[in-house]
Amino acid sequence: MTLNWRSRSFWMTVGHFATAAWMGYVLWRTGGNIRDPFFDLIFVVPLAGWIAGLAVARIIVWAVACKEAKGE
User: Is 33 in contact with 39 (CB distance < 8 Å)?
Assistant: First the structure.
């Protein structure tokens, strides 16, 4: 079985697992205490990761399209 690194579904799956792992880590580290300052990051970090991932994907698609338009 080979992984298709360019597949959107592959990166969505990676993102889902990373989000679940981060949330599990925050819950473990804080013991589920919502008053712990670290608990504030439970949604902020995954959201920032998804936004950064979307931005990187758009830049890559744009760069590939520019390269193909030049005929390289």
Answer: yes
Q: What are the mean pLDDT values of the chain's consecutive 10-residue runs (72 residues total)?
A: 80 94 97 95 95 92 90 70
Task: Please say whether the beta carbons of 18 and 46 come within 8 A.
Answer: yes
Q: Model's pTM, two decimal places? A: 0.79
Among residues 26, 55, 28, the alpha carbon closest in space to that of 42 is found at 26
Q: Give the 3-state secondary structure of residue 2.
A: coil
* Boundaries of every domain in the chain: 12-70
57 and 15 Cβ atoms separated by less than 8 Å: no
**CA–CA distance, 65 with 57 (Å, rounded to integer):** 12
